[in-house]
């Protein structure tokens, strides 16, 4: 049931010609007990400049799993990869690539890059138990919301903080698949999710791009 929704929102390489360095993250979905879950990792403290360098009771920012994948991922015969609306992080064009993995998939993380692996029910990103938000304003004055989720993982018996671009992509993915209103405010017109998400990205990119031009 999720695949037709993902196909409807697949943008392909629509933003690939923008003059920004490109990157991509993988959003791996799997089914457990009849519910979609998103697999996430926590960066190792050994990764230079990673959010995981911030020590605390809650492991720092989680990110989508696996090494970077090309911004344009070739689709298999079943259309197994889907690219959703992009984001901008550290002046990079970041494309979220959604894929499905088997429930039996065994994760073997590289300890030099990943300290922990966990899964979160996808609906948590529209109906969270522990959520807060704060506003962020770019140097050009464009304002946006930053989502922050605290998820208590019974399997690991600890809480994980999911925020920033990871949370942004997770929220948008949940909105696309479930097609229902979240329990918190978002920066989209939920009655016109596709077009409003493109407008959101375009405005964000314009604010970043104008700053880049002013620095030249």
TrEMBL record:
One of its GO terms (biological process) is coenzyme A catabolic process. The chain crosses the membrane at residues 162-179. GO terms for molecular function: coenzyme A diphosphatase activity; metal ion binding. It comes from the Eukaryota. The keyword Magnesium applies. Its cofactor is Mn(2+); Mg(2+). InterPro entries: CoAse, NUDIX_hydrolase-like_dom_sf. Keywords: Hydrolase, Magnesium, Manganese, Membrane, Metal-binding, Transmembrane, Transmembrane helix. This is NUDT7 diphosphatase. It comes from Spizella passerina (Chipping sparrow). The lineage of its organism: Eukaryota, Metazoa, Chordata, Craniata, Vertebrata. The gene is Nudt7.
């Amino acid at each position: 049931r999720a695949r037709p929704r993902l196909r409807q929102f697949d943008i392909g390489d629509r933003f690939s010609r923008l003059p920004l360095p490109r990157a991509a993250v993988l959003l791996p979905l799997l089914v457990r007990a009849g519910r979609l879950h998103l697999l996430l990792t926590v960066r190792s403290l050994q990764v230079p400049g990673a959010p995981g360098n911030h020590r605390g009771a809650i492991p720092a920012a989680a990110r989508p799993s696996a090494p970077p994948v090309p911004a344009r991922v070739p689709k298999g015969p079943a259309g197994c990869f889907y690219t959703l609306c992009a984001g901008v992080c550290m002046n990079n064009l970041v494309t979220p690539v959604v894929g499905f993995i088997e429930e039996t998939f065994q994760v073997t993380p590289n300890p030099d890059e990943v300290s922990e692996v966990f899964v979160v029910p996808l609906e948590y990103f529209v109906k969270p138990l522990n959520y807060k938000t704060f506003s962020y304003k770019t140097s050009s004055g464009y304002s946006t919301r930053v989502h922050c989720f605290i998820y208590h993982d019974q399997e690991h018996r600890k809480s994980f903080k999911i925020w920033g671009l990871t949370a942004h992509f997770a929220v948008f993915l949940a909105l696309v698949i479930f097609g229902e209103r979240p329990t918190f405010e978002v920066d989209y017109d939920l009655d016109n999710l596709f077009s409003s998400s493109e407008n959101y990205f375009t405005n964000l990119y314009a604010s970043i791009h104008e700053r880049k031009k002013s620095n030249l």
